[in-house]
Amino acid sequence: MNILKYLFDKFFPSQISRPKQGISELQVAFKKQYRNFRSLLTANNNVLEIMAEMEQTLAMGQPFSMSFIRGRITALTTNVYKIIQYLSQLSNGKYSGLTSVFNDLTTQLENILMQQPAVPKGKFIMPFAEIDRDSVDLTGEKMANLGEVRNHAKLKVPDGFAITSSAAHHFIAANNLEDEINRRLQTMAPDNLESVYQTSAAIQQLISRAPLPADIEEAILAEYAELESRQGDHVLVSIRSSATGEDSITSSFAGQYRTQLNVDKEFLIQTYKEIVASKYRSQAIIYRLQRGYRTQDVSMCVGCLAMVDAVVSGVIYSRSPENPRSKWVVIHAAPGLAVQVVDGSAPTNMYSVSREEPHKVLDSKISCPDTTQSSTGEQVSSLSSDQIIELTRIALRLENHFGAPQDIEWSINRSGAIIILQSRPLGLLSLDVRFPEHEKNESEESTPCLMSGGTVVSAGVACGPVHIVRSNIDLLQFPEGAVLVVAHPFPEWASLLNRACAVVSETGQVAAHLATVAREFQLPAIFGMEKATEVLKRGDIITVDAVGRRIYSGREESILTQATPSPNLMKNSPVYRLLQEALTLITPLNLTDPASPFFKPSSCETFHDITRFCHEKAVIEMFQFGKRHSFDEKAAKQLVGKTPFQWWVIDLDGGFREGLDSKNKFIHIDDIVSTPMRAIWHGITAIPWQGPPPVSLKGFGSIIFQSTMNPNLDPAVRSTLTAKNYFLVSKNFCNLSVRLGYHFALVETYLSDFLTESYVSFQFKGGAADETRKLIRITLLKDILERFDFRVELKADALTARIEKKPTPFLLERLQVLGYLLIHTRQIDMVMEDQGMLQHYRQKILADIDMLLKTEIKQDDQGATVNGAGL
User: Cβ atoms within 10 A of the Cβ of 716, count?
Assistant: First the structure.
């Protein structure tokens, strides 16, 4: 077999063996191929956008729910399936192996989405003697920590017991409530506060009205009787939430669930049900969404603790909440019960105490009376020096025991004993976002502020409109990005923190539950700003400086430059981890080299691999259109005018001027409105070809030798080398097959407003000279094309070059370059004897192209422009 004929047939598959197609059949075939190609690219764009959105959501820490994950994965699955189907149609089912890979990946993703936390199994009741950190799944973090304090840290805690998560699951299951609860949650609009409140109230009512199974009720009453035997008859108890995830290292859930004090036996069972129902309080629902917890990730365990007859209570931070390197313990104290400290309703005394012995008081702020009157009428000091020292030692002891700074709730009873009510990890503002010690700058000195003072409970700066909240109506009307202004920092206002840009409260201090949540959200907050609800007017724009304890009218840009990025509230949460796991099957790209033998369906490990493979193969299949379709030469119109060589044009769809006589066998370039063809034609004709270069005797001998090896030059045989040059065109598509002498070239392009659909492909092979000269020419072409951003591949003396995903004006310039090269590099292989000649032609070609690109493409009267869209 003749080698040149073999290579020609391989590069330009013979059209003789295929039935000839008329113009209408060719147009139908092109439209079908292009429709599938564009549909594939649209689906591919959708996939890439969804993947980018999912990755960005994970990285930026924007709150997202399971509905977000399910919705995006459903959209991904649908679009990847479409991509596979469109590629199958483009390639006549060539890549059937993709289906099994896709099915396997979707099964794995479904398994991830269906993951459920294990339902803990165990006793309904656990006394504190049996509780420690190992029982956290049954008792929740709050009660587990308290059991750890009692049984291992050997500190005093209230007497009592825990009602376990096993009991709560049994309660819900016995009343068949789970499906109805889920139904109501799924119909809730999480961004609509009214919808959240209505759903919350309905679910809580559903639970609190359900009967408690007899076995749970009997177990609770029996354990309460045991408590009475130790504490005395009719002991009053505190019923406290201890949900899983509450008081954890990542999320405090501070004040989000319900606590009921002074409960007697008569109301014990009903109160327990209401505490379980508080899992669905509106602020708890919103908090979970913000922190990345699914409903099923939280089990409501409950603590039942004997009430402490408290003389003084408060909160200890074993380190300053605002400074993880602080060398002092912070104590907040107030007469009476601890609840008034944590709900922010009462002023407190604050003491900063050295962590080093002998634990000196470094600073103190006395905001409440120094003494309080006991029930017997005696005057009792709110906190003595010895008690301050002992509280400091306890804080350091618990920090050491738990291995992290602690937020500790405590009371001192009538006998002077310190009782630990709660110990949880202290959420500290990380050093990379912590604000430096505030110093007044010039703008602060020159700019009068509306208000100053108060206590910084969460550092930061922000600007927004004032929204004063006094009632539920005010709450429901709270706008996104407003400054939350309240009289008291009640925990229920936490449902607004995802909408607020800052918080200002007339009362409260660092130990309030709302302050804890504000610090978690890294939301600027100032408490103790007296008369804030009077001075600040609803709707007015203010700047809150929760570093310098100032509030300014309007936007203070010099202050706002100190703003820090929002925290990633979702990180390490159950929903966050689930999305992370799902993305391992979606976004990694393992198929990067189309030339690799492993670039095949069976090597696809992710959705990204499938889309990468399909896109690459789809472009190739589209490039093959001109090769795969044989056509009736009579359907073509010959291009007339002063043109080098002979050219024929076939209109696939809208490539010719409207009104053109279809019977006319000839066409002028001005009758062609195909944007890419006109660019190629400009490159062919703008700089006249000077004819073949003078050939040396050695070069001529090479041509004669090559010719003797080519039977196509036998005059008795119709030569493929004399085949016509064809343009297949539409408005924005062009396929050009060029056979000029001994070399063969193919240009195919589509121009679209969508970058992912736009491409230019160029293939080149052949020549009359020996292999050395042809290689020098092909190297020259490679060098020039790479200068113009083509991705070039060489195989022997065959060249393939591509550009994809570039704007139309950019691609039109490259098409002009290709048009020039088609004409001006033919036959120069015959003179390519050395590097000097190579350099000469390189400089000449680059100079010509520079001149070419400075000339404008002629615009015909039908408006053929470089920015046309669609077919």
Answer: 5
